[in-house]
Automatic annotation (TrEMBL):
The name this protein goes by in its record: Zinc-finger domain-containing protein
Organism (species): Eiseniibacteriota bacterium
Domain of life of the native organism: Bacteria
Length: 194
């Protein structure tokens, strides 16, 4: 019998079929002899009188079982930990505050350019829309092209401005979410293990 066979014999609960060979090996091997002595001590301890429960053990366990539901509810919905950062730091790294401050700085810095922005947009878009108008006229010859540039009409300028503002608003949502992910960082994200 080898040391590995001896360990397997111990793990199997020391069956009587291999007991003689195991004892002979333990007599020749110091490491296996100490394992056999430890196993016999464990058997003696386990064979002793069973330990009785401490006084009021059942009452304490049943009280904990009764409150386990409320403890689990508190564990599922923990109160948010108070932040150690001052309010002005939390406000400074909030994505909405950063976006508002950047917009205010841009407006204050480039107010003249922003006032002329609708005219500049209209001037840039008018040739393109004029090309579209000519293309649509080519596609439907019954329709006549009106005289004058399409961007000259104030209603067209207003429509272009509304379209530009709408595009800016729609584009700001992904920008806001991106800034929010940066501000939260990997520490605040919830990890779900499935």
């Amino acid at each position: 019998m080898t040391c590995r066979d001896f360990e397997q014999w111990l793990d199997e609960g020391m069956p009587e079929g291999k007991a003689a060979a195991a004892r002979a090996h333990a007599a020749a091997c110091v490491a296996c002899a100490s394992m056999l002595a430890a196993a016999r001590e464990i058997e003696v301890l386990l064979a002793g009188t069973p330990a009785s429960a401490p006084p009021l053990f059942t009452d304490h366990v049943m009280a904990r079982v009764a409150t386990a539901g409320t403890l689990r509810a508190r564990e599922r919905d923990p109160a948010p930990a108070p932040s150690i950062l001052p309010w002005w730091v939390r406000a400074a790294y909030d994505p909405a505050a950063v976006l508002a401050a950047a917009t205010a700085a841009l407006v204050a810095w480039r107010i003249e350019e922003l006032i002329r922005l609708p005219e500049a947009l209209a001037a840039g878009i008018v040739p393109w829309t004029g090309g579209l108008a000519r293309l649509s006229a080519l596609m439907s010859p019954a329709r006549q092209i009106s005289s004058g540039a399409p961007g000259a009409d104030p209603m067209v300028k207003l429509a272009l401005l509304v379209a530009a503002v709408t595009l800016l608003a729609v584009g700001s949502v992904p920008l806001y979410r991106w800034c929010e992910r940066i501000a939260e960082g990997p520490i605040h994200r919830e990890i779900v293990v499935r």
